[in-house]
């Protein structure tokens, strides 16, 4: 059974007020206390409706639950959308292929924002086999144990190494070299602030002003690095 909800008077911006109560002799008149309680109820109902709407939007890009044992931390919606918009701008409407290394949140948002974009998710967690041919099993300990058809096939590569160690970054860098196209190509790296010098040394990357956020609070501050100058996008290169 559907719940009936009271509706706000369309002529009253702030909800019910004493002036909106019928002044009919036969109509009951609410006390100021009752009016306040009713307005509070209506405000709460509106808040619940907005929350339900937001939940529905999030549900469209819902992922499996995070597994901390695999160092999984999903991006916030704002971060995922911002990075996805940047990736799509790099594709520039051309038939460009995009590789997402250990960043399933980005994959999901890209697929939602442009279902036609050519994507490949490289991920250790086999729960993402649900993505079919868009999924490739990936273990950073074996950086080039990948299907040969993926070699040098991607104009845009986005990587989020699972661990904040030099060894992990070096091995992910080998995977990036395996995947990325010769010539003009674009690399985005999302990792901890502690990797700043290593990102420059190993991959020649510069930090951007945009600060990635996650749905779970992390103790390590994250940064976004790129191998190209994003101009005014992503907060620009940090000088």
TrEMBL record:
Top-level enzyme category: transferase
Protein location: Cytoplasm
Keyword Transferase appears in the UniProt entry: yes
Gene Ontology MF: a single term: protein-lysine N-methyltransferase activity
Top-rank taxon: Eukaryota
Polar residues biased stretches: 1-20
Residue segments, region Disordered: 1-21
Family: Belongs to the class I-like SAM-binding methyltransferase superfamily. EFM5 family.
Function noted in UniProt: S-adenosyl-L-methionine-dependent protein-lysine N-methyltransferase that methylates elongation factor 1-alpha.
Protein name: Protein-lysine N-methyltransferase LLUT_LOCUS532
